[in-house]
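quick one before i forget lol
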Amino acid sequence: MFKKLVAIALVLVVSVSLLAGCSSTGKVYHGLGQVPTFRVGPGKDSAEVQVYSFNYTTCTALFDKNGKIIDVTFDMLEVSSPNYDGATMPHFSGWPGTEGYNVTDHASGTVSGVSDNTDETIAAEVNGWQSKRQRGDSYGMNTENDWHKQMDFYQKFFVGKTVAEINAWFAKYCSDVNGRPLKDTSTKPEDIAKLAKLTDAEKKSLSDVIAGATMSLKDAHGDLLGALAMAYENRLEVGAK
């Protein structure tokens, strides 16, 4: 995964070089941000042992001299304990030499034993990890609009906005409960009250976003806003636009 993220960053730097060759009207900055989030879940295994997971969100972005986003790419590594029954999610069974953790058979969905935590087995496990983009449609979040497609939409939506503007949009248009864009089908009182404050025009603009993406921008599944903010904080001048 990390080789892929480095490649993405290099593509953006090359893009900056091309921009610099075409014009010198303004400075361009490149930033990289990485933020971990930790989750108790999803759920428990068939023996009622807790499943744990983490998401490591990476953002690489180009900004103009005013902080507006020129281009941005996100990816996320999601890893669970080996007792999660999802077949495509990367697992981490434990530190080499430590006691094994429950392993779930993906076909039956039941615990089939404990992990064998040797140097060889853990190295093979880690080397096989794939990011959410690499998992593509096999991620399984939404059969018609999976993670990578929704992320592509958000990336386009962010272009031309500053980090502060995106955070302000999030505060106004997204749920304080789960970080997802507000929907009129929500049954949560907090969401209903927040949605009621929007004008008809604002609700229309929100519906346009929901048509492209509904996943959370900031929760235990990943912190896109935090990674973007870190990319902006870490930005360095790399060329001219």
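fyi The mean pLDDT is 90.
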